[in-house]
Amino acid sequence: MPETENAAATAAAEEENNTALFGKYEVGRLLGCGAFAKVYHARNTETGQSVAVKVISKKKLNSSGLASNVKREISIMSRLHHPNIVKLHEVLATKTKIYFILEFAKGGELFARIAKSRFSEDLARRYFQQLISAVGYCHARGVFHRDLKPENLLLDEQGNLKVSDFGLSAVKDQIGVDGLLHTLCGTPAYVAPEILAKKGYDGAKVDVWSCGIILFVLVAGYLPFNDPNLMVMYKKIYKGEFRCPRWFSMELRRILTRLLDTNPDTRITVDEIMKDTWFKKGYKEVKFGDLGLEWKSEGEGVKDLNAFDIISFSTGLNLSGLFDSSCGVEEGERFLLRESPEKVVEMLVAAAEKEGVVVRMRKECGVELEGCGGNFAALVEVYRLPGELVVVEVRRRDGDGGVFRDVWRNKLRPCLCAASSSTTSDRDGTTLAQPVAGDS
User: Fold this and answer.
1) Region labeled Disordered — which residues (predicted)?
2) Per the domain annotation, does 291 fall within a domain?
């Protein structure tokens, strides 16, 4: 980088830095700059971990009318936990700026690698496998990226692909009464023909089309549909006119034909991609949501609460005081059980699996729950109290409040309370498997 550019980047970083962002992140070099955001490399001063800090100007955001996009991006990224998706660590804000603290992908954009030279078919397949794994994970949770392209695919230091930039993503709540999305978005060369038709589209199917374009680019080194004249390029996309170079294998040509099928009804699906013989070669299925949490020794892996901690939850002993009282069980609640934290989590996992809810174990004593096509997302944490009691705290992380209330109150919580009630009671014979407060 020329000296003048280095100086400009340093000055910009210092502007954002002010010694340390929120006293926690030491901001470094500028990584990239867009219309509404700048991205910096930073270091967590507590752990030494490298992170990327995406800085968004509230003024620019409000003037552009894109505030809802940022809120949706935060909502989406906070519930996506996949090894091939950039992780959102936390979101911070001041009066003028919003800060996304993101996983740092040291390898940079995949686009930079392709610009130097095309990939071998085997290497392209490896990246494509990781891309499809991430995209399939998103679709299963009701999230559609809608702007998949090499510029939004990053590489970590091990060379693994990371999907980023969910700013144009859609969720099922945005689907119209016709069952389709209607917002025109995406990057011209990667946009699906049905978006150009302006009659509505399936978010999953347009993501698959974009994945097909990406696969072609990885192996060919150029775009399948391209022309200096945008309207001419759109006509090529609409007609599906492309030719594979001579070095493409027959198996690759076959899957590309299905990926770039202009008819979304007959276009290959993610499930079908994963069964394809070309795709499956050397594929290792990604494991996530591992239930094998190892509980540490008492007091180390389980949060113990003393009297001060209990009182600090809220005024008096109303354990639901942390939540807005007007929200009731739609936002969360706390209740007591006479059980070990380990047993509570075990019962919760069993109940969730029975209802088809995805479970992810957190360190210490927490469980993340997701289901109902992304409309149900909750965090459950268990705190040990003296006298063989625990506080179970549940919070709605995302999704629909009505769905949360139905799934948690009518399906999951009763399993915990019933199991605990059938085996334990206090010395006076009064069951403790009931909410302490906030149960309407």
Assistant:
1) 420-440
2) no
SS3 108: strand
Q: Which of 116, 77, 125 is nearest to 98 (CA)?
A: 77
Q: What is the pLDDT of residues 398-435, one digit of tens each?
A: 777 788 888 888 888 888 876 555 444 333 333 334 33
Catalytic site residue 178? no
Check which CATH number belongs to the domain holding 426 and give it.
3.30.310.80
For residues 315-324, average pLDDT: 33
In a domain, 298, yes or no: no
Catalytic residue, chosen from 122, 147, 290, 398, is: 147
CA distance 357 to 350: 10
From 280, 295, 328, the end of a domain falls on: 280
In-domain check, residue 286:
no
In total, how many domains does the chain have?
3
**23 and 76 share a domain?**
yes
- Does residue 208 carry a pLDDT above 90? yes
- Tell me the residue range of the domain where 408 lies: 303-437
280 is in an annotated binding site: no
CA 307 to chain centre: 36
Dihedral sign of CA atoms 165, 167, 173, 176 in order: negative
User: How far is residue 334 from each of residues 6, 299, 303, measured CA to CA in Å?
Assistant: 52, 21, 15
Q: What is the pLDDT of residue 194?
A: 92
Q: Check the CA dihedral 437-438-439-440 and report its sign.
A: positive
Sequence-separated (6 or more) residues with CB below 8 Å from residue 79: 141, 370, 374, 377, 397, 398
Q: Check pLDDT > 90 for residue 392.
A: no
Contact 267, 258 (CB under 8 A): yes
Dihedral Cα 424, 430, 431, 434, nearest 10 deg? -150
Average pLDDT over residues 107-125: 91
